[in-house]
Amino acid sequence: MPVERVLGVGGYFLRAQDPERLRAWYRDALGIEDGDDGLWPAAAGPLVFATFEAGTDYLGSPDQRTMLNLRVADLDAMLAQLRSLGAEVDAGTQELDGVGRFGWVRDPEGNRVELWQPA
């Protein structure tokens, strides 16, 4: 008997103190264009699903239980853009052979977001 499987990620939902401000930041700082219905025509590509130990600091503050990872074409250009907009960008980046480069930013509500330039 075949096993049903999901087809991909259908959405990512965030609680926010100011939902419109947060939505505008994701649109203006990261280019996530969404219509009135919230649909964003994201480019096809790899998606990583991973779990971490409860005590990890990789996801940001201990209160942050998930982290959004977004693929980018040019990590350095994206980080420079975010800095120019006054976003809180981590100073360092990380490179993993065969995987790509990573950088991090905090959205206006303090959520750590990972940016990934695939290898």
From TrEMBL:
| Matching InterPro entries | Anthracycline_SecMetBiosynth (IPR052164), Glyas_Bleomycin-R_OHBP_Dase (IPR029068), Glyoxalase_6 (IPR041581), VOC_core (IPR037523)
The record's listing under PROSITE patterns reads:
VOC
Q: Which residues form the VOC domain?
A: 8-118
The record's listing under PANTHER family reads: GLYOXALASE, GLYOXALASE-RELATED
Query: What name appears for this protein in its UniProt entry?
Result: VOC domain-containing protein
Q: Which organism is it from?
A: Microlunatus sagamiharensis
